[in-house]
């Protein structure tokens, strides 16, 4: 009942009739989102223009949940725990979730939004209506939201360079996941939803010609991940995510007067958020303390 999440948990105690675990998860989501929103509220100058590119990951998380709902890949009965720090915000996604019965209704709602990040969501829903394929819809969304993210980064300022690399590393992680899916697929005639995204630090042609993960990551910014003994995606994927967080947090000292401070602060909040959720789930499931410690994300 004390600490930065206390007020959010007290609110859940008063307003929610869910389990203790769900209340804790909602409180941590609400508290972390509030902190992430504060970065934009206190920013000025160039940072004010660049932070929406960093915070759009909140919209990306929410959009994928919404797409799963309409493609019947999400059978949850309650309200999702929206990440409320992106340009669209949780109210927008919650209204689509509660009020739109069909994808077409959601498309119409997106087109009436004043936020430009609603357009990629509209196009992805249209792609699903046309194809009935969740992965095509998801790739459509990711491709357009990455293009939106890169559009304001056409200058040469150090801040834009940092955010451009942030976007590039994010694209790399998406493409590496696709590469693993391709390498495990027996279907050689795979469709457009397997196509790699542009904008990463590793170009699509390198992904196409790499026959092993060592070939793919050698001589790249992700080379350090190859030191991991396991090369399976769950272990390597977690290591890549952790390396990405470490890079972001290190910017606090490397760029103390620029956008690096905001990037590092947001990364620390996301790291804390993940660990709070692990603690809540682990304690709820009566996992042994050592097991919970092993699951925590550590720098």
Automatic annotation (TrEMBL):
Keyword match Methyltransferase: no
InterPro entries per UniProt: ATPase_csu/dsu_sf, ATPase_V0-cplx_csu/dsu, V-type_ATPase_csu/dsu, V-type_ATPase_csu/dsu_dom_3
Lineage: superkingdom: Bacteria
Pfam families to which the protein is assigned, alphabetical: vATP-synt_AC39
Record key words, sorted: Ion transport, Transport
GO molecular function: proton-transporting ATPase activity, rotational mechanism
SUPFAM superfamilies associated with the record: V-type ATP synthase subunit C (SSF103486)
Sequence intervals crossing the membrane: none
UniProt family annotation: Belongs to the V-ATPase V0D/AC39 subunit family.
Name of the protein: V/A-type H+-transporting ATPase subunit C
Organism: Dethiosulfovibrio salsuginis
């Amino acid at each position: 009942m004390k600490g930065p999440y206390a007020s959010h948990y007290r609110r859940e105690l008063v307003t929610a009739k869910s389990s203790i675990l769900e209340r804790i998860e909602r409180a941590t989501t609400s508290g972390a989102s509030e902190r992430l929103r504060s970065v934009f509220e206190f920013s000025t100058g160039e940072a004010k223009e660049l932070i929406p590119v960093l915070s759009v990951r909140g919209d990306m998380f929410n959009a994928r949940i919404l797409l799963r709902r309409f493609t019947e890949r999400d059978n949850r009965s309650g309200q999702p725990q929206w990440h409320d720090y992106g340009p669209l915000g949780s109210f927008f996604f919650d209204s689509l979730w509660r009020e739109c019965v069909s994808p077409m209704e959601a498309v119409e709602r997106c087109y009436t939004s004043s936020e430009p990040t609603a357009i990629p969501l509209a196009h992805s829903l249209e792609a699903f209506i046309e194809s009935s394929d969740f992965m095509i819809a998801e790739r459509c969304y990711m491709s357009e939201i990455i293009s939106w993210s890169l559009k304001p980064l056409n200058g040469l300022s150090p801040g834009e360079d940092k955010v451009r690399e942030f976007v590039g590393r994010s694209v790399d992680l998406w493409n590496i996941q696709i590469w693993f899916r391709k390498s495990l697929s027996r279907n050689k005639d795979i469709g457009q939803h397997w196509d790699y995204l542009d904008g990463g630090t590793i170009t699509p042609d390198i992904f196409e010609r790499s026959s092993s993960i060592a070939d793919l990551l050698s001589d790249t910014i992700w080379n350090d991940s190859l030191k991991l003994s396991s090369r399976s995606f769950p272990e390597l994927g977690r290591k890549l995510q952790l390396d990405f967080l470490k890079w972001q947090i290190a910017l606090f000292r490397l760029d103390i007067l620029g956008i690096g401070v905001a990037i590092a602060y947001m990364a620390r909040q996301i790291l804390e958020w993940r660990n709070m959720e692990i603690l809540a789930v682990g304690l709820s499931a009566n996992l042994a303390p050592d097991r919970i410690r092993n699951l925590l994300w550590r720098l």
